[in-house]
Write a structure and sequence with these properties.
The structure holds two protein chains of two kinds.
Chain A: H1 6-19, E1 35-40, H2 55-62, E2 71-73, E3 84-86, E4 89-94, E5 101-106, H3 120-131, H4 140-149, E6 153-160, E7 163-168, H5 175-179, H6 187-192, H7 197-200, E8 210-216, E9 220-225, E10 240-245, H8 249-257, E11 263-265, H9 272-277, E12 281-283, E13 289-295, H10 306-314, H11 318-324, E14 329-331, H12 354-363, E15 372-379, H13 388-400, E16 404-411, H14 413-421, E17 434-436, E18 439-440, H15 444-451, H16 469-480, H17 487-501, E19 504-510, E20 514-516, E21 520-521, E22 537-538
Helix pairs in contact in A: 10-12, 16-17
Chain B: H1 2-29, H2 34-38, H3 45-54, H4 61-73, H5 87-122, H6 127-141, H7 144-158, H8 174-208, H9 211-218, H10 223-250, H11 254-259, H12 265-275, H13 278-306
The chains are: A alpha+beta, B mainly alpha.
Chain lengths: 539, 312
């Protein structure tokens, strides 16, 4: 494991520059066989302690390939929304007597990359790392990320070497869906590197199909295949994977087209036709992502009136938006994708219908002489934000046709996050009536996260403070139920409510485009924010 | 001479102190703090407070400033809030990467600029003057990132003879490293080349019009000796601008580093700004400001050596 060697590099560079009067024009750099090189959109290498930062892109590349949870995503199919499957736990049960108690049977024979065993002691050590601020291994950043996604863990105990009990603070039927976001690192390796997370980040050890061999901040991370991975069917086909942070889209594009990488995340939509004609594969698929405007329900916001919210939803031409994006998105008319069982059958089917939008606005007291005047916070860029500036300008124009006068508060991503964690009436919101922030729509836990009235900001992530009693009641039923039958119908009812009540402006779902060279084979684009790199081969 | 150098060094102290105060004050103006970006919105307050305490963000701003300054004076640049790595090592890595570009870019830009400027002046009004002046103006006017993208499109994508981005593998050979340097160095050298060329042309023209040049010619001095006098007289203002230009190059060009995915000091600062990583941002700017001041002192000394009148 080496870090970058600045002085050595510098001296080599100077020597290179000094002797190099002649330009070495020639063959492209040699590529090791069986090496998959990917350009990420992140500006830096996500953290490598086992709980990556950089949002879900961090989890996609430096989370699941290296570290695993008791529960994992099943990323083997491109045809259905990814669901959970056993990971480091082979099974789990919710106690019938006390539904806050969950028992997990741990997988036997699993070892971390450093050779130490995964067992209940290692699992408890990791839970202490996240939930016990007094433990020696407490990791503040990792803990903050994990506890934000798993806020309900109240207690845990080892029952035997391969059985673990976790208690939640209230009954939560979808608790396993939260556990996919809790990853396990090696206690032995942490001890070995001097009980220091900064040192562990340079030489980490998880249980996943890939192991990290080299971390160069801001440059790359190298991973080797874990030949002794516990699931023989998922031992990686490539020998090595190299991940490059490359935030600039044109740079990623040039890197792919010049053969420096095999795969880029999010090619610029404008470049997709030329990439296709040059023989590159463009891979897209639905995944649980929504690109909405999250409305503020405060009394002085025009969007406090449901008719105004519905009018906005009837006034946008989603098909034209998709055309603007060269087809790398699909129209969104609800939290879940239309046509799936979880979508249900809402009363409002949002099509582009300016006449209906104007009629709804007239009922709400707005018209050509009294347009709806609102200000929307939009970011210049950010995780999952797609192309916020042209997309919002498009919305501004189309909404103007229905008597909306939209103004923007353009901010950088950090300011948006500060606004999103505080109440809509706080100064941090800069007096806006909605935030344009892309959000996750993978499962019921996310529905609770964004729409439950118990999750109003600043405590939770229901930024607009939208509240609906029926919604809260059904969600409570789902949370306390131990009977999985009828669950899907209840979730569909929740979707129907959020479609009809429109706490968000439903705009598009991203299709998560990736461009890759013809040499890359075997990739299955799962309907998920995360992907499985183990079946991929490179010529 | 030593008094002159001492005086210049003394002036640097209040400059750097002022820079450090301005940096700290500006960072405080942004809403929220680094934990707002570091951890998710739903993270428990308890953990956010631990992080704030760990990085001293729960102390009054003036206290944070003096602690940072005190550590800095002892050579401790702090620890990055985002990566948990020492700022010193992050900065050393970024700065060395930037130097790999800045030194050849300065050499190329200054040499070409000086040669083009002198030739343009000697052939004033002729086609060579027009050509060289056009090149210089293009160098100053064309946006860096645009030139970078065009060069990448031609040499990396279309011809596939040079890499599009990055520094190449650490275990690569010298040729490989050189190939990764070519496009960013050319892109980065354009502005210094243009600026120096215009300045040298103007300086040489001014000197050529002075009476002592006519007198030297009339006395029959060789053209080579006259050229030496011209260069000597044009050097002080050119050196001053070269010092400034080299300082700018060391600050790293965010745009060029972004286009070529080059992990230099511009990118490090850019990242620190968006992450509100105060230790990285403050220390990087202060170290760069220190280098900038040092370069200017060096230029002052060189100017004083060439023209002793400047020592007064």
């Amino acid at each position: 494991m080496t870090r970058s060697q600045p002085l050595k590099r510098f001296s080599r560079g100077i020597a290179t520059a000094a002797v190099g009067a002649a330009f070495a024009l020639g063959a492209a750099s040699a590529q090791a066989e069986g090496t998959l090189r990917i350009a990420m959109t992140a500006a830096d290498v996500p953290s490598t302690t086992g709980m990556p930062n950089n949002g879900y892109e961090g989890m996609r590349f430096l989370g699941y390939p290296i570290f695993e949870g008791l529960v994992l995503w099943d990323l083997s199919s491109a045809d259905t929304l990814a669901d959970i499957e056993p990971g480091l736990a082979t099974s789990w049960t919710q106690s019938a007597d006390d539904p806050t108690k969950w028992t997990f049977k741990l997988r036997q024979g699993v070892t971390f990359h450093d050779g130490s065993p995964f067992n209940a002691d290692a699992a408890i050590w990791n839970l202490e790392r996240y939930y016990n601020t007094d433990s020696p291994q407490f990791e503040p950043q990792g803990s903050a990320i994990t506890r934000a996604r798993n806020p309900n863990v109240k207690a845990y105990r080892k029952i035997d070497d391969f059985t673990l009990e976790i208690t939640t603070d209230r009954p939560l039927s979808y608790f396993p869906y939260l556990l996919v976001y809790m990853l396990y690192s090696s206690p032995t390796q942490w001890e070995k590197v001097g009980k220091d997370w900064a040192e562990f980040a340079k030489a980490p050890a998880g249980t996943g199909p890939f192991k990290i061999t080299d971390v160069k901040p801001r440059v790359s991370v190298s991973l080797d295949k874990n030949a002794s991975y516990w699931d023989a069917a998922r031992v990686p086909h490539v020998d090595k994977m190299i991940l490059y942070p490359m935030p600039e889209a044109t740079t990623r594009l040039a890197a792919l087209r010049s053969g420096q990488v095999d795969w880029i995340e999010v090619p610029p939509p404008d470049a997709i036709p030329s990439l296709k004609s040059a023989g590159y594969d463009i891979v897209t698929n639905s995944y649980p992502h929504v690109w909405p405007w999250v409305f503020d329900m405060s009394p002085d916001s025009a969007f406090a009136d449901v008719k105004v919210r519905q009018a906005a939803n009837y006034c946008i031409n989603r098909d034209d938006m998709v055309t603007l994006l060269n087809g790398v998105a699909e129209p969104s008319v609800g939290f879940f994708k239309k046509g799936t069982a979880k979508f249900g059958n809402p009363k409002n089917a949002y099509t582009y219908d300016p006449a209906k939008a104007k009629a709804l606005l007239a009922e709400a007291g707005y018209g050509p002489d009294k347009p709806v005047k609102s200000k929307i916070m939009i970011s210049t860029s950010g995780s999952g934000q797609m192309l916020p500036l042209p997309m919002n300008e498009f919305l501004q124009q189309t909404l103007a046709e229905c008597n909306f006068e939209i103004d923007f508060e353009v901010v950088e991503w950090g300011t948006m996050l500060v606004a999103f964690r505080n109440e809509p009436t706080e100064a941090t919101a800069l007096n806006v009536d909605a935030l344009n922030i892309s959000l996750v729509s993978s499962d019921i836990s996310q529905m609770a996260r964004w729409f439950w009235s118990g999750n109003f900001t600043p405590k939770g992530s229901n930024w607009g403070h939208w509240k609906n009693e029926e919604y809260d009641a059904i969600l409570a039923e789902i949370q306390t139920s131990t009977d999985p039958s009828g669950m899907e119908a209840k979730i569909a009812r929740l979707n129907e409510i959020v479609v009809d009540e429109a706490p968000w402006l439903w705009i598009v779902h991203d299709l998560n485009p990736r461009a890759m060279s013809k040499d890359v084979k075997g990739f299955v684009s799962a309907q998920s924010w995360f992907q499985d790199f183990t079946p991929v081969t490179v010529k | 001479m030593w008094r002159f150098i001492g005086r210049r060094l003394l002036y640097a102290v209040p400059i750097l102190l002022g820079v450090s105060i301005i940096i700290f004050a500006l960072v405080q103006l942004a809403p929220g703090d680094v934990t707002d970006i570091l951890i998710p919105p739903e993270a428990p307050k308890e953990v956010a407070d631990i992080l704030r305490h760990k990085f001293g963000l729960d102390r009054p701003v003036y206290e944070q400033y003096f602690i940072w300054l005190g550590n800095l004076l002892q050579g401790d640049l702090g620890v990055s809030i985002f990566t948990n790595q020492p700022v010193g090592s992050e900065l050393a890595s970024a700065l060395s990467n930037t130097l790999m570009l800045a030194i050849p870019a300065a050499f190329l830009g200054f040499t070409l600029g000086a040669v083009l400027g002198v030739l343009a002046a000697f052939f004033r009004g002729g086609w060579l003057d027009k050509l060289f002046s056009g090149i210089a103006i293009a160098g100053v006017s064309l946006p860096h990132y645009w030139v970078g993208i065009v060069l990448v499109a031609i040499f990396a994508v279309t011809l596939n003879v040079l890499p599009a981005q990055g520094m190449g593998p650490e275990d690569g050979d010298v040729w490989d490293s050189l190939r990764h340097l070519i496009l960013p160095v050319i892109t980065l050298s354009l502005i210094p080349m243009g600026v120096i060329s215009r300045l040298v042309r103007a300086s040489v023209l001014e000197i050529l019009s002075q009476e002592f040049i006519s007198a030297l010619s009339a006395k029959g001095m060789a053209r080579r000796r006259i050229l030496f006098h011209i260069v000597k007289n044009a050097a002080p203002p050119t050196l001053a601008v070269m010092g400034l230009q080299f300082g700018y190059l060391l600050g790293g060009s965010i745009l060029v580093e972004t286009v070529y995915n080059w992990p230099g000091s511009g990118g490090l600062m850019n990242l620190a700004i968006f992450r509100r990583d105060v230790p990285v941002l403050s220390s990087t700017i202060l170290v760069l400001a220190g280098i900038f001041v040092a370069i200017n002192i060096l230029v002052d000394v060189l100017q004083a050596l060439i023209d002793p009148r400047l020592r007064r």
